[in-house]
Amino acid sequence: MRHFDVVVVGAGPAGCATAISGARLGLRVALIERQTFPRFRPGESLHPGIEPLLQQLGVAEQLCGRAARRFDGQWVHWDGPPRFNGFGADERGIWQGFHLERAQLDATLLSRAAALGVKVQQPCGARRVLTKANRVIGVDTDSGCVYAPYVIDASGARGWLSHQLELPIRHCSPPLLVRYGYLRGRSATFARAAHLQADPGGWTWIAQVEERLLHWTRLTFEQNAPMSRATTLPEALQALPALGPLRGADVTWRITPAAAGAGYFLVGDAANRLDPASSHGVLKALMSGMQAAQVLADCLHRPALQVPAQMQYRQWLSDGFAHDMAQLQVFYRQHPGPPSWLPVD
Ligand SMILES: Cc1cc2nc3c(=O)[nH]c(=O)nc-3n(C[C@H](O)[C@H](O)[C@H](O)COP(=O)(O)OP(=O)(O)OC[C@H]3O[C@@H](n4cnc5c(N)ncnc54)[C@H](O)[C@@H]3O)c2cc1C
Known about the structure:
Elements: E1 2-3, E2 6-9, H1 13-24, E3 29-32, E4 45-46, H2 50-57, H3 60-63, E5 69-71, E6 73-77, E7 83-86, E8 89-90, E9 93-94, E10 97-99, H4 102-115, E11 119-121, E12 126-132, E13 135-141, E14 144-147, E15 150-153, H5 160-165, E16 170-171, E17 177-184, H6 188-191, E18 194-199, E19 202-210, E20 213-220, H7 229-232, H8 235-238, E21 242-250, E22 254-255, E23 260-261, E24 264-266, E25 272-273, H9 281-301, H10 306-333
Parallel strand pairs: 1-14, 2-3, 2-15, 3-11, 6-18, 15-24
Antiparallel strand pairs: 4-10, 5-10, 6-7, 8-9, 12-13, 13-14, 16-22, 17-20, 17-21, 18-19, 19-20, 22-25, 23-24
């Protein structure tokens, strides 16, 4: 039998941020990841707000150095002439996001966690949640049972723990599926900034994410709307060879309201998710992981605080989700063919 202060399921940005922050707070942390790295995951365009978080996690030097591919914002071709949506600026200058290979982000975060003494089990899947008297007490994994007063679900969009505990999930859009892919090549148009282009059925986002690699993502607002590479990509890109298959991901807007409870916290995409037009999934994953680690450390030190602390964490997540969703709704209302399912303003 193995005992820890916290068991984290999933070693994406949310899980690693929880594990690193927990270890820095002096907790004994186990991190379980079922895939071997590098694993494929989209999300290589990072919001500038990530930089201070990476600093706190102790990985900014490796990830935000001179080699990082920087950008100031993106071009939006929406309801009128194209406009440049910058991230903003302060007295130190213009805020810049950056493109980063996900494999590099994932590997750097994971090795930082291991260096801080986090017990990493990989590849090792979480099979079944262990409960006692209505409280989560551990995880049955591929390599045996692991026990801890807190289990963190950082399993991403699959929401492993929500399914295990049958937690209600609130869907805030109809089923939404994005298609995405990569092209080998370079385009001067997309080299300096990404472009988000509206069309009657949805939008397409294209960015030069590496010197010779373009990423495109396409969302259609209505299910089963036709989609092909030929209708999605601008003519200039259609001749470029694809790298890897055409992929799809479920990006239905959704939240699990009970994101914290007796013995557990949900972080990252496992807690809530919007489609990629909200553009900062990795930022939210890191933030929620760091926040959950702090709250659960408080709960371990002062058990009387457990219930109010969990309620506060739920509220914090739900306020952030509501804010981001409201912004996305305003943005989609300005689309030339807004989704029919948007609530009336
Ligand atoms: C097409 C597309 C484009 C995107 N582009 C961007 C972007 O440009 N910028 C951005 O910020 N965000 C982007 N996102 C969102 C971003 O990918 C996610 O928000 C982010 O990866 C969430 O991180 P996470 O740690 O919560 O989950 P994940 O990164 O999905 O990690 C979850 C981990 O849990 C592991 N796991 C799952 N189940 C188990 C189990 N039972 N046992 C053990 N391990 C398990 C998985 O193997 C995985 O490694 C995009 C999303 C999509 C679909």
